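Input record, target 12 of the design panel.
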């Protein structure tokens, strides 16, 4: 489904980017439209695939998972990529994984409690069939973990449709 965002849609998205838990009623008050309008617009953007859900942001330091490492994964052959990805999905500490070009077939991010915990996870990754080796980089501090500014700039760049067309 093709859906052209208008000014109201963009403003709804901006509100949700700022706080995904903001109620439709609060958004409607700010935009001077009815809560029903916000609800219908959000449902249309979900159906079009523009909105795929909301996320929860946690403070992993407080939860005891402050150790972050990036693991470059060397594969024995590219045909094992899918199987390795499926095996990585089973390891909860693997929070992000990308199929990559360059030295690594897969590049992953892990979150652990400490270096001993990370060692266990890295060894677990190394033992996955199809993985020939790993290379790990430790993150000293996570400074940016947000796509809000990118999404805001995308909204700024999108041409605005006619407000009456999307209602």
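The sequence produced for target 12 reads:
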């Amino acid at each position: 489904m093709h859906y052209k965002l208008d000014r109201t849609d963009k403003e709804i998205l901006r509100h949700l980017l700022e706080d995904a838990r903001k109620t439709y009623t609060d958004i409607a008050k700010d935009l001077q439209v009815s809560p029903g309008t916000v609800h219908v617009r959000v449902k249309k953007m979900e159906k079009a695939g523009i909105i795929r859900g909301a996320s929860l942001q946690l403070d992993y330091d407080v939860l005891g998972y402050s150790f972050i490492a990036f693991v470059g994964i060397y594969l024995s052959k590219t045909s094992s990529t899918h199987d390795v990805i499926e095996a990585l999905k089973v390891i909860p500490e693997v929070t992000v994984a990308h199929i990559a070009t360059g030295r690594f077939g897969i590049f992953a991010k892990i979150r652990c409690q400490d270096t001993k915990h990370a060692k266990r996870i890295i060894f677990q990754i190394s033992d996955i069939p199809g993985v020939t080796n790993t290379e790990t980089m430790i993150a000293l501090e996570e400074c940016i973990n947000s796509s809000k500014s990118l999404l805001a700039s995308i909204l700024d760049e999108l041409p605005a449709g006619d407000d009456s067309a999307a209602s």
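The first helix runs from residue 7 to 18.
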